[in-house]
Design brief:
Helix content is 43%, strand content 14%. The chain is an alpha/beta fold. The protein has an 8-stranded mixed beta sheet with strand order 3-2-1-4-5-6-7-8, sandwiched between helices. β1, α1 and β2 form a beta-alpha-beta unit. α1 packs across α8, α3 packs parallel to α4 and α4 packs parallel to α5. The longest helix has 33 residues.
Length: 311
């Protein structure tokens, strides 16, 4: 299955934050696969450019210019899909911002704006989409729909200087698991997409700055980066197309990663080791037992730097 195959013919999707970078690649790919797309961004010119690109390729798209986070924006996105295309089949919550600083330098505003856009924006858009899916089920007796919530490796492992971003991306993956349970009866699938791509949002990471510049010049991603799972935004988009297609109807509650030459399934948090003591534990008993029974199971928390190439 390639992103150009018409596997989404007639479906209607909203992609938040789709004026540039990963969002632009998502919107273009699902349009190429046959979907009608609501392109959302805060930059009217960027959104208009993406709509024009989709239409020039024979697709259909409309822009909605609004910041993601407020409930009113989520409602407007769903309303635009229904007004222009008659229904809603998929919501892709991609919009995001960065305010990178180590915690001692991070302000309340730095933290709050990231939470508002990523976490609250994902919540409000997912809630609005689910409400529309249920309404459509009542209207035409056909339940179903797709939610794809965009996470990041920064939410799965440590990412220095991104306390705010790591927190919301971890929260988004947790949200996907819970929504998958809540939406199962309506036959709505909910998955988290964990992309790794060389975009402008990654250019601030020194080791990737030149690679991002090279990609923007139209040069290929170096083979050693592709092999480690770092590629372009266009490398990520086919997984999204697949998740929105009928072929992925049985996949839900998952965190799926893609980048460069790799696709991955991230594990859910699970108990790595445990031990018991009749009557409970004292601090002294823990100190005695921990080195021999638990310490060897402690988990790595920080990745090799290339795995941080998703912003």
């Amino acid at each position: 299955m390639s992103e150009g195959e018409a596997v989404l013919t007639g479906k209607v999707a909203v992609v938040t934050g789709s004026g540039r970078g990963l969002g632009r690649a998502y919107a273009r790919a699902i349009a190429a696969a046959g979907a009608f797309v609501v392109v959302n961004d805060v930059d009217a010119d960027a959104a208009a450019d993406v709509v024009a690109e989709i239409e020039a390729a024979g697709g259909r798209a409309v822009p909605v210019i609004a910041p993601v986070g407020p409930t009113a924006t989520a409602g407007a996105l769903v309303a635009a899909a229904v007004e222009h295309f008659g229904r809603l089949d998929a919501m892709v919550t991609n919009a995001g911002v960065l305010r990178d600083r180590s915690i001692g330098k991070m302000t309340d505003d730095d933290f709050d704006v990231v939470v508002e856009t990523h976490l609250r924006g994902t919540f409000t858009c997912a809630r609005a989409a689910l409400a529309r899916f249920k309404e459509q089920a009542n209207e035409d007796q056909q339940s179903g729909g797709r939610l794809v919530l965009v996470g990041s490796p920064a939410g799965q492992r440590a990412s220095f200087g991104q306390t705010n971003y790591s927190s919301v991306k971890a929260g988004i993956v947790g949200m996907a698991r819970t929504l998958a349970v809540e939406a199962a009866r309506a036959q709505v699938t909910v998955n988290a997409l964990i992309p790794v791509a060389l975009t402008r949002m990654v250019a601030t990471v020194p080791v990737f700055a030149e690679a991002v510049a090279a990609v923007e010049r139209g040069e290929p991603v170096p083979a050693e980066l592709r092999e480690r799972g770092v590629g372009t935004a266009e490398d990520v988009a086919p997984l999204l197309v697949y998740l929105l297609s009928d072929a992925a109807a049985g996949i839900t509650g998952q965190a799926l990663g893609v980048g460069g030459d790799k696709i991955s399934v991230w594990s859910h948090p699970t108990v790595a080791a445990e031990t018991s003591r009749t009557g409970g534990w004292s601090a002294q008993a823990i100190a005695e037992a921990f080195p021999g029974e638990l310490a060897q199971h402690l988990q790595p928390y920080a990745p090799d730097l290339p795995a941080e190439a998703s912003r």
